[in-house]
Amino acid sequence: MFDSSHAPTLEQAAPVAEERLDASTVAAWTEASSRIHVDAHDDTARIDAINAIEVLKCALAAAQADLAVDFDESMRQKAADQGIAKERQGRGIAEQIGLARRESGHRGQRHLGLAKVLRSEMPYTLAAFRTGRITEWGATRLAQETACLEVEDRATIDAELAGDPQKLEKLSEKEIGDQARKRASQLDPASVARRRAKAEKDRRVSIRPAPDTMTFLTGHLPVGQGVAVFASLRKAADAAILDGDERNRGQIMADTLVERVTGQTTAPATPVAVTLVVANATLLGDDNAPAHLDGHGSIPADLARSLVGNSLAADLKTWIRKLYADRNGRLIGMENKSRLVPKALANVLRLRDGGFCRNLWCDAPIRHIDHATGAAVGGPTSAENLQGLCEACNYAKQAPGWSAAGSHPPDERHQVTTVTPTGHRYTATAPPLPTRSATPPRLRPVTVEIHHRPDLKLDFAA
C-alpha cells in the first residue's frame, strides 16, 4: 500500500534552477512508485494518479536535462584544465549520457543538445518542462522548429507558446510543432527557406527492423516528391482493385513499390542479397531454432529456409560457409599480429557481434572494427580484443579517461567491458550464434550469402 502522506508534492518533484535532485531521493521515489495503490472502486482516483504520474515523468525528464548540462559543463572544464584542444573537449560526453539513460550515444547527443538549448535560449519552455506541463518530445519539437531562427526570434516564439503554461499543456505535441513552424515562417521566412533547402540536400533512404520479421523502409524526401510517390502507389492500387485484385490497398501499394524499385514483375520474385547465419540442423534438417539475418536480427527458422529456397528457385548464386562455435554459441576466434584487421577476420567479427554496435543500448550498424584495448598501448589484433562499433561510439572511446578490454570468460560469449571517465563500467556480451534447439557438444552454424547472379552454384568451404 502506498502511503500518500509521504508522497512528494508536484512542487517538490519539479526541480527549479536553484535546486538539484540527489540520487537517493530519486531512488526513494522509484521504490515508492511500486506501491502506488488506490481504492478498488475509485476509478476517478486512478485517472488522477495516471495524470499526476505523467506530470512527474515530465518534471523528472527536465531534471535529467539540467543534470546533463551540468555534466557537460563540468567535463568540458576538466578537459580545458588538462590542455585538451577546444574542438575535442566535448568528445565522449553525449555517449556517457546515453549510457546512463540506457540509450545510444546518438540519442544522448540529442538529449544533451535539447537541454543546452532550453537553458541558454528558451527559458519559458524550460520552466514549463520543469513543472511537467510539456513533454520532452513536445519541448524537442518546439526547439527543432525554431532552430533556424536568430536568438531573438526564437525567444519571441518561446514566450508566445510557452509563456502561458495552462494554454501550452492543452496543445498536443503535433500542435506545438505546427504552431512553432507557422510562427517561424512569419518572423523569418528567409531562414525557413534556407533550412528547407538544406533538408532537401539531406534526402535519404533508411531501413530498420520491424516486429514480426518485417522492416521499415523509409524515404526521407522533399514533401512534393514524397506526396507524389504515395499518390502514384495509391493510384496503382485503386486501379488494381477495380480490375478485381483480391489484395487490399496496403498490400498492393507495398508490392508495387518493390516491383517498381527492383524492376521485377512480382514482388515475391525479388532477388535478395543477404548474409544469413543459421545452424546446419535448421537449414538442412528439421530443427526450428531461430537464425540471424545480418542487418536485421533474429528470424524464424521457416523464414530462413524460405530465403535460401527462394534463392535457389530464382537461380541465384549461393555460397555456404561453415563457421564453428562451441556449445555456448561462441564463435571460435583467430589471431593476427598486424594492427590492421584482415578482411576475413573483420567479416567474422561482424557476424559474431550481430552486425550492430557492441556498445550497450546502441543499435547502430557496425562501421568500424577496432581494438578494445588500443593497439598504441599494446592491445593485440585478435578476436578477443576486437569489437564492432558504430562511428560515434568508436570516436567517443578515444576521448581521455575512456578504456575498454575484451575477454572470453569460461562458458561465456565474448565480452567487452568499457570504463567511462566517471568510473562507470558497462559490460556488453556478444549475441549468441544460432544453434539447434537441443544444443549438442559441438555445432556448426552456417553462413549463407545470397547474391543476384544469373547462374547457380553451391560452394561449400570450411
Can you tell me about this structure?
The protein has 462 residues and is α+β, with helices and mostly antiparallel strands. It is 45% helix and 15% strand. Strands 5-4-3-14-6-15 form a six-stranded mixed β-sheet. The protein is globular. The termini are far apart.
What is the β-strand count?
15
Give the averaged pLDDT, no decimals: 80
Q: How much β-strand is present in the residues?
A: 15-25%
Largest sheet: 6 strands, mixed
Structural class: alpha+beta
Anisotropy-based shape: globular
Computed Rg: 27 Å
Q: In what order do the strands lie side by side in the largest sheet?
A: 5-4-3-14-6-15
As residue ranges, the low-confidence spans are 1-19, 333-339, 452-462
What is the number of helical segments per DSSP (H or I, 4+ residues)?
17
Helix content: 40-55%
Instruction: Give the end-to-end Cα distance, rounded to a whole number of Å.
Output: 62 Å
Quick summary of this structure?
With 462 residues, this protein is of the alpha+beta class.
Descriptors:
alpha+beta, disordered C terminus, globular, 462 residues, six-stranded mixed β-sheet, single chain, three-stranded antiparallel β-sheet
Detail the topology: elements first, then pairings.
Blueprint: H1 10-13, H2 23-33, H3 43-81, H4 93-100, H5 105-121, H6 123-130, H7 136-145, H8 151-162, H9 165-168, H10 173-187, H11 189-201, E1 204-210, E2 214-220, H12 223-242, H13 249-262, E3 274-279, H14 280-284, E4 291-293, E5 297-299, H15 301-313, E6 317-322, E7 325-326, H16 343-352, E8 368-371, E9 386-389, H17 391-396, E10 403-407, E11 415-419, E12 425-429, E13 442-443, E14 445-451, E15 458-461
Helix pairs in contact: 3-5, 4-5, 5-6, 6-8, 7-10, 8-10, 10-11, 12-13
